[in-house]
Amino acid sequence: MYFASDNAGPAHPKVLEALVAANTGYAMGYGADPIMEEVRQMVRDMFEAPDAAVYLTATGTAANAILLATLANPWDTIFCAPMAHIQEDECNAPEFYSNAKLTLVPAVDAKMTPDALRAAMLAEQTRGVHGPQRGPVSITQVTEKGTIHTVDEIRALSDVAREFGSKVHLDGARFCNALVALGCTAAEMTWKAGVDVVSFGGTKNGLMGVEACVIFDPKLAWEFELRRKRGGHLFSKHRFLSAQMKAYLTGDLWREMAISANASCTRLAEGLRGHNTAELLYEPQANMIFVNLPRRDHQRLMAAGAVYYTMGGDPATGDPDEMIPARLVTDWSMTNEGVDQFLQILRA
Amino acid sequence: MYFASDNAGPAHPKVLEALVAANTGYAMGYGADPIMEEVRQMVRDMFEAPDAAVYLTATGTAANAILLATLANPWDTIFCAPMAHIQEDECNAPEFYSNAKLTLVPAVDAKMTPDALRAAMLAEQTRGVHGPQRGPVSITQVTEKGTIHTVDEIRALSDVAREFGSKVHLDGARFCNALVALGCTAAEMTWKAGVDVVSFGGTKNGLMGVEACVIFDPKLAWEFELRRKRGGHLFSKHRFLSAQMKAYLTGDLWREMAISANASCTRLAEGLRGHNTAELLYEPQANMIFVNLPRRDHQRLMAAGAVYYTMGGDPATGDPDEMIPARLVTDWSMTNEGVDQFLQILRA
Amino acid sequence: MYFASDNAGPAHPKVLEALVAANTGYAMGYGADPIMEEVRQMVRDMFEAPDAAVYLTATGTAANAILLATLANPWDTIFCAPMAHIQEDECNAPEFYSNAKLTLVPAVDAKMTPDALRAAMLAEQTRGVHGPQRGPVSITQVTEKGTIHTVDEIRALSDVAREFGSKVHLDGARFCNALVALGCTAAEMTWKAGVDVVSFGGTKNGLMGVEACVIFDPKLAWEFELRRKRGGHLFSKHRFLSAQMKAYLTGDLWREMAISANASCTRLAEGLRGHNTAELLYEPQANMIFVNLPRRDHQRLMAAGAVYYTMGGDPATGDPDEMIPARLVTDWSMTNEGVDQFLQILRA
Amino acid sequence: MYFASDNAGPAHPKVLEALVAANTGYAMGYGADPIMEEVRQMVRDMFEAPDAAVYLTATGTAANAILLATLANPWDTIFCAPMAHIQEDECNAPEFYSNAKLTLVPAVDAKMTPDALRAAMLAEQTRGVHGPQRGPVSITQVTEKGTIHTVDEIRALSDVAREFGSKVHLDGARFCNALVALGCTAAEMTWKAGVDVVSFGGTKNGLMGVEACVIFDPKLAWEFELRRKRGGHLFSKHRFLSAQMKAYLTGDLWREMAISANASCTRLAEGLRGHNTAELLYEPQANMIFVNLPRRDHQRLMAAGAVYYTMGGDPATGDPDEMIPARLVTDWSMTNEGVDQFLQILRA
C-alpha cells in the first residue's frame, strides 16, 4: 500500500536485465556508446522525428532545467502553471540553469488556460528593456494534480506561445501515463501540437533513473550538450543510461508500465468514488489522485501501513472528522491486491 | 587492449548484483532509503569520521562542482593545478556552480608545490575589493598525469591553505588507486592531512556511476544538499546509487579493484620501460601512464586494435619516427593478457 | 506639464554646486574620499544608527539588487508585492545578483498584507530541499502605486518576516516622499520597525543619480562591498557620488524637495477629485497619482503638451469616452503653474 | 605630486559646465534624452562607423563586463593577458556577467603575442564538450603596464581571433591616451584592425564617470541593452552621462586631455631616465610609468608628499638600498610643476 510516489517503486526487471547485458567489455563513454546509437533512432522513430536531437539525463530536474536554459535567455521569463514542478519542486534549478525567472499563469485543473497565458504574455514586455522579456512556455503533462491536457489543449497553448514568438517545453515526467490515457501518438502530443522540446520521462515509469531530452530543432543540440556537461550531467559510463532507455523502448515496455500504473489509479479512484467520506479534488486521468479524507480515515489507513503524503493538517492529531487532502500515486508495480487492501481498510 | 579511460570498462558484477538485490518493493526516495543509512555509516567508518556528512552524486563533475561551490564565494578564486580536471575537463562546471574563478598554480609532476601555492595565494587579494578573494584549494589525487601526492605533500598544501584561512577540497576521482598505492588510510589521506571535503570516486573504479561527497564539517551539509538539489543531482530513486556504493564498500571491493587496476598499470609500465622507443613522461604511480612513442609504434598498435588517446600529432600520417605522446589508462577489469598483448605488439 | 516620472526632472542646483565644489585637486577613489567620510556620518546620524554600514550606488536597481543579494541565498525566494519594482522594472536584476527567485505576495493598495505574507511564507518550504527556501522580504516604500505603508504596517510585515527568520529590505526609491508624508523619523520607518537594509533613494528626489545603501548590521558590510565591486558599481571617482549625497543631506535638502513634490501631487489630486470624469485608482499619499480619464481628456491634455504614461489602451484612437488609466508623477521641481495648467486643460 | 591613479584627479571644468547646462527642465530618461542623440552621432563620427550601436555606462568595469558578456557564452573562455584589468581588478565581474572563464595568454611588455594567443586558442577546445569553448579575445589598450599595442599588433591579434571564429573586445579605459600616442584614428585602432566592440574610456581621462560602449555590429545591440539594464547600469537621469560624453567629444576635449596626461608622463619618464637609481621596468608609452627605486628614494618622496603605489615590499621599513617597484600615473590635470617637484625631490 505504497502510494507516496511513482519514484518509490522498483525498476522493471527487464531494465536490470538490460544493465547486466550492457555490462560487458569496454564501451566509449559520454554518449558515444553503441547502445545510445540505437536509442537515438528508437526515440526518433517513436516521435516520428528523424532529425530530432536526443539526449539522456539521469534526473527529471536536470532534463527540465537544461532544456529550458537552452530555450530561455537570462533576461526572459518562463511561463508555467503555479503548481508546475519547475516552480515548486526543483529548488530554483530552472532559474539556476537559465538565469531567467518564472511567471505563474493561472490554471484550471492545474492546466494553464490559453486566455490566461495570452494575458500573462501580453502583460510582460510592456515595459521594454525594464521588464523581463518573454521566454518559453512550459507545459506539464501529466499535470502535478493528475490531470491531462488534451492534444487540442496543448496545441492551443502552443499557438499562444507562437503568437509571441516563444518556444514550448513539455515537462513529460509522466509522459507515458498521459500518452496511454490519451491514446494518441508521441508525435501528436508534441511537435504536431507545437511542442519544441520534451522531457520524456522514464524514472517515474519503471526505469532506475533516465529521462530522454528530445529537441525537435537540431540547431539547439550543441548548446544543450554544452549546458548538460557544464551542469555535470554528462555520464562517463553512459551505456548504463542508454541500456535503461533501450529496455524502455523495446517492445513498448513504457506502454505496458504506464497502462499498469494508470489502471491501478482507475481502480483506486473508482473505489474512492464509491466511498462516502472521500472527495476527489481533481478528476484523476493518469496515475495520481488528490482526495479529501477525514482524519479518522487517514489514521486507520496509516496504522494499517498505507504510505502516502497529506497536504496541510497533521493526520495524527485533531478532530477525527476534519477533512485532510492526500495525494495517492500509483506506479507500474502496484498490484490490484494493494489497491483493494487500501480500499478495504478505508471502508472498514 | 582498451586503454582509453578507466570509465570505459564494465562495472564489477557485484555492483549489478547489488542493484538487482535493491530492486524489490518500495523505498523512500531522495536519499532516505535504508541502504543509504548503511552507506553513510560505512563511509564514516572508512574515513574514521563519525560526524561527516556523506552524500552521493552520479558524476565526478557534479561532486567536484557542488563541493567547491559549498566552499567558495562567488567573488573567490579557487587554487588548483593547471591540468586539474576542474580546469580542463568540466566545461566551466566549477565556475557555474560557484560563480568563483580558478587560479592556476604552477605544478611539478602535476602537483602544485607548496611554495607556488603560497606565492599564488599571496598574489591574490593584494588588491582589496578589486581583485578576487582567496577561496578554497583543490588537490587532485591521483593527479591528471598519474602521479600521487604523498600524505606529507597533501598536508603541506593544506598547511598553506590554512595560513590564508582557506579550505581544502580533494578531487578523488581515483581516490582508491591512490590509497592502495600509498598504503595509508582514508583518514590519513584526507582530514588528518588537512582536507575538508572529498570527492570519493567510484565511477572510475568499477561502479556504474556514483561518487561519495564526504564533508568533514557537518555545518556545511545543508548548503550542500540545497546546491545538489538545485543542480538537479538529487536522485529520486536514490537506492540505486546507494546500492552501488554499498557494494563498493562491502568487503573492500574498492580495494580489490584499485589494486587490480594499479597492478595492470605497473605491468604495462615495466614493459614500456624495457622497450627502447618508449619514453615515460611521468612516473606512473597509480593506473595511468603518459608515454612518448614513435608514430610507427602507434600505427602498429592501433592497427592491432589497441584503443587509447594520443595528444598532439596525428598518429595516422607523418614521419614514422616522430614521437607522439599517449595516455594509457588501466581499469580494474584489465587482464594480464591484455597488457601483454599490447607489449608484444609494441615489441614486434 | 511633465508628469512622466520623477526621474525626468532636473537635479537641484545645490547638487551641481556641490559637484563643482568637489572638483578640485586629487582625491582617493573607490569610496575613500573625504566627502564620503562625512556622508557616512550624516547618514548614520539621520538614521540614528551609529554602527550602520553606508554605501553609495548610482542607480536604484543596483541598490536593490545588491542589497537583496547580500541577504538572499541562491536557493531562496524573496517575498514582495506583485507590482514591486524588483519584480516588474528591473529586467531580472534581483535574480541576476542573488540567483534567488521572487514570490509574489497578494497586496491591497499595493501593500502586502501581513496575513498574505504569512500565508506565502508558510506555503514555501513545505517541501524541504525540493522547494525554494525562505529568503528576505522586500517592502517598497512609497509603493509603485503611490501609497504609503504606515510605520505600523512596516512593523507588522517585519514581524512576520522575523517569525520565519527572514530579513527585511526596504526599497526606498521614494523614501523621502514617504518620510515627509508620514512625519516620522528615518529610524522609525526602518530599523525601529524591523527593517534590516534600506535603499535610500536620491535619484528620484532631486539628485543626478545616487542612492545610499544603509545596512544596519555591519557584519554584512564586506559582502556588500564585494558584490558591489563585482557588479561594476564601485565608482573610481567616487567623490562625485559623495558630493551629491552630501548636498542631499545638508540642511535637509531631501526634505525640502520631497515636500515640494508631495505638495504638487496633493494639489493635482485635489484638482482631479473635483473633476467629474476623473477616477482616482489609489489614494495618492506621496508624489504619484493613478487616475482613470476618458480618452477625450487624454487627447486634449497630450495635444496641449502634457507628458505622462497611460497603461493599456491607446489614448490616440478609439472611443472618446473609454476610460484609460494614467500615472502622473510630480517631482521636486514641479511648479504650481504646471499643475494648474494641467488641471485647466483637463477642465476645458 | 599625486601619481596614484588617473582616476584621482578632477574632471575637466568643461565637463561640469556641460552638466550644469544639461540640468534644465525635463528630459526623457534611460538614454532617450536628446543629448544622447547627439552623442550617438558624435561617437559614430569619431569611429567612422555610421551603424555602430553606442551606449554609455558609468564605470569601466561595467563597460568591460557587459560587452564581454554580449560576446561570450557561459561555457566559453575569454582570452586576455595575465595582467589585464578584467583578470586582476574587477573582482570577477567579467565572470559574473558572462559566466565564462578567462584564459591567461603569456604576454611580452604586457601585450599578448599572436603566437601565444594562437597556442592558447589551439589548446582550448581540444576536448570537445569537456573543456571550455573558445570565446572572445580581450585586448587592453593602453596595457596595464603603460605600453601600447601598435595598430599592426592589434590587427595581428584580431587575425588570430578570426582564425578561430572569435570576436575581439578592446578594453580602452585609456583609449585616448593610446590614440594620441599612436597618432592614428579611432577607426584605425579598432574596427579597421579587427576589433568588434570597444570600451571607450572617459573616466580616467577627465570625465566624472562615463565610458562609451561601441558595438560595430548593431545586431548585438539589443542584447547589450538587456544586459546593461539587468546589471543595474541603465541610468534613469541618463542626460547626466550624455552631457559628460558630449563635452568629451566636443572640440576633441578628449584629445587635449590625453595629450596633457601623456606629456606629463614623458616629462616624468625623461627625468627618471636621467636619474641614476631609477630603473624603468617598461617603456612608458602613454601616461603610466613602472619604475624601480631604492627604498631611500621612496621614503624621501613620500615624506615630501608624493602619492603613488608601490608593489611588493614595504617602502617604510627595510634596507634603504633595496629596490622597490612603483607605479606612477599622470592625469590630464598634472602640471609641469608637479612633475618637476617630484624629480627634484628624487634627485635631492
Topology of this protein?
The structure is a homotetramer of 348-residue chains.
Chain A: H1 13-22, H2 34-46, E1 53-57, H3 60-71, E2 76-80, H4 85-88, H5 93-98, E3 101-104, E4 107-108, E5 111-112, H6 114-123, E6 133-140, H7 151-163, E7 168-172, H8 175-182, H9 186-189, E8 197-201, E9 211-215, H10 221-230, H11 239-249, H12 253-273, E10 279-280, E11 288-294, H13 295-303, E12 309-310, E13 323-329, H14 336-347
Parallel strand pairs in A: 2-3, 2-6, 6-7, 7-8
Antiparallel strand pairs in A: 1-9, 4-5, 8-9, 10-11, 11-13, 12-13
What does this protein look like?
The structure is a homotetramer of 348-residue chains. Chain A is an alpha/beta fold. The first copy, chain A, has 2 domains: 241 residues, Aspartate Aminotransferase, domain 2; 93 residues, Aspartate Aminotransferase, domain 1 (Alpha-Beta Complex). Chain A has 14 helices and 13 strands. Chain A has a 7-stranded mixed β-sheet with strand order 1-9-8-7-6-2-3, with helices on both faces. In chain A, strands 10-11-13-12 form a 4-stranded antiparallel β-sheet. The longest helix of chain A has 21 residues. The radius of gyration of chain A is 21 Å and the shape is globular. Chain A starts with 12 loop residues before the first helix and ends with a helix. The mean pLDDT of chain A is 97. The interface between A and B is large, with 51 and 50 residues.
